[in-house]
Amino acid sequence: MYNLLSSSYFLLFLIIAIGLIFGRIKIKGISLESSAVIFVALLLGHWGYTLPKVVQNIGLVFFIFTIGMQAGPGFFRSFMKDGRKLVILATAVVATATLTLWIFGRLLGLEKGLVIGLFNGALTSTPGLAAAVEISGSPLAPIGYSIAYPLGVILVILFLQLVPAILKINFRKCEKEYEAQQQETIDQIISKNIRVENANIDGKTIQELHIRATTGCAISRVKHEGVTTTPDKSTILHLGDVLRVVGSEHDLRGAEYFIGSAVDEALELSHEHSVDWVLVTNKSVINKPLKKLDLFANFDTTIVRIRRAGIDLAPTGNMMLRFGDRVQVASRKNSKEQVIKLLGNDNKRLSSTDFLPIALGILIGVALGKISIPVFGIDVNLGVTGGVLTAALVLSALGKTGPIIWSMSGSANQIFRELGLLFFLAGVGTEAGKDMAGALAQHGVIPVAIGIAVTLLPLAVGMIVGRWALKLNFLTLLGVLAGGMTSTPGLSAVTSKSDTNIAQLAYATVYPFALVLMIIFSTLLFYI
Questions:
Q1: Of 393, 351, 528, whose CA–CA distance to 79 is shortest?
Q2: How far are the Cα atoms of 392, 495, 515 from residue 82, in angstroms, in the given order?
Q3: Higher confidence at residue 60 or residue 458?
């Protein structure tokens, strides 16, 4: 058995298997799920079994890259909408940890190297530790880190697992509330049937009237003398015609003022016309403005709406198509096949995985993480985690550069994310476990107690401020707490709560900011 445990491959999958088995055990409805892997790893690490560092590193980059790829398309919109609140909360979390440790340090007369080591260990910040070592030059900094780090990992996971259960949070309700909030920020696309009553429109073509530019709406159907068709640029409107007009509620009010009054009248298409949903999978049309594609002029086809990440968007001339968009088009049946060919409509391509963007994206992220920027006289970099996360966010938001599409299918993202998470938890657990007992024996319980306080107090303050003062969605709050504590294992405790990317978006929003805060506050702790 010993020989088997000395094999890294066997040990890795033994830790994962045992962890997943224990993770499925429920006590009063509470289970640790994937997070249980780290507890098995800590135990085996304490017994002297270790995994190669590369296991942890590969797991980390896969997990963080897939989080960024999933969160990227909505990250910048989320940051603009809630960014200030999330950054305020992340600052409150890190500042609370700083203040707590400064008070303990002054009261107990602790050496500053130990203080900033405990600070970065409690908030599980390896980049912060590097800064702490450089600032203090003290061997106590890594010792303090080694004492607080395992506790920081464990307590963040337990806090984010247990508090929602104690508060009896309904995560399905949180998801619905978040979706409702998102809909409020984006005008919902609806349709109305409007009768032509404006005499100035009578006898003019849709092209002459510039309906989309004038009202912001699209016309998907025209009923003239009892026959309903899909319009093209040469379609002439007459008094008494009924139009199916699609747009936001605000724009539709303008369309009524321009065209006529809304009516309740059926508009059944003739057999020569159709309205279809088409999937965008053709690389050649991605990131091209709709006005350059000009489907209306080239194919007598109207883009009625664009569905992206479950949200319906009103098409505009400057809007660019993204890989995986679903486009509703109204067209004549003789041009339908041409439009489908142009846009792609290939479900197989959408579900397949191209490994080149994954490899290139991680390479870019690792290189970005190595770039140093002077902060208070210290060279600071994002590290592997911050670099890979930033690269994934930006690339997935861009969608395409040249021939490369920066996207992953949902199934591929889920597999890589879960595999990366399990590898990371197994690697980081065995590494932390081997030093935990020795550090505790050498320095006693005081640094342990301080580490516990510095981990739990910021989480408690963050929970109170985020839930009752800022009134954040609970899934968003959990993501901010994990990001503010710079805890990737903590995020793993959150991802199992929901199939949505709500928590990941929040984590991705505050994590890079929290990394910089850790450097700044480590410096402050040393000099005050």
A1: 393
A2: 20, 20, 19
A3: 458
Residue 191 has pLDDT above 60, yes or no: yes
Domains of the chain in start order, with CATH, are 2-181+353-527 (1.20.1530), 186-349 (3.30.70.1450)
Q: What angle do CA 411, 416, 417 make, to 5 degrees?
A: 95
Which one, of 323, 314, 315, lies nearest residue 280 by Cα? 323
Strands 218-224 and 242-248 turn out to be antiparallel
Q: Tokens 């530019």 appear where?
A: 213
Q: List Cα–Cα distances, 372 to 368, 369, 375, 382, 393, in angstroms.
A: 9, 8, 9, 8, 20
- DSSP letter, residue 374: E
| CB of 477 closer than 8 Å to CB of 468 | no
Residue pair 65/454 in contact by the 8 Å Cβ criterion: no
Q: How far apart are CA 356 and CA 405, in angstroms?
A: 9
- Alpha-carbon gap, residue 100 to 122, rounded angstroms: 11
Residue pointed to by tokens 């800064």: 131
**Secondary structure tally for the chain: helices H, strands E:** 22, 14
With a cut of 80, say whether residue 50 has pLDDT above it: yes
User: Is residue 220 within a helix (H) or strand (E), and if so which, with residue range?
Assistant: strand 218-224
Residue with tokens 């476990």: 433
Coil, helix or strand for 483? helix
Alpha carbons 237 and 225: distance in angstroms, whole number: 11
In this prediction, residue 376 has a pLDDT band, given cuts at 50, 70 and 90, of: low
The helix (run of H) or strand (run of E) holding residue 205 is strand 204-205
